[in-house]
Amino acid sequence: xxxxxxxxxxxxxxxxxxxxxxxxxxxxxxxxxxxxxxxxxxxxxxxxxxxxxxxxxxxxxxxxxxxxxxxxxxxxxxxxxxxxxxxxxxxxxx
Length: 94
Fold this sequence. Notes:
By secondary structure, this protein is an all-alpha fold. It has a single domain (3-92), classed as lambda repressor-like DNA-binding domains (434 Repressor (Amino-terminal Domain), Orthogonal Bundle), CATH 1.10.260.40. The chain has seven helices and no strands. Helix 2 packs across helix 4 (44-53) and helix 3 crosses helix 4.
């Protein structure tokens, strides 16, 4: 992804997209918002707000991911380096 591609998305866009993906997973598993809130120990209000706006604390996001069985995907974030120059490669080796 180049700099131009990154300008197409706002932080809010990315947050809403993540919320929509988790909402689809929740629905696919036939779990209600109430059930997910109870199982993940995230308040019902926070879960509802997250699914509507994408806003949630990182800890609550992780709890929801754990309950929905997608925590491995979260844990894999940023594990593969993305280099934009040879200098970054060399700096990473030090």
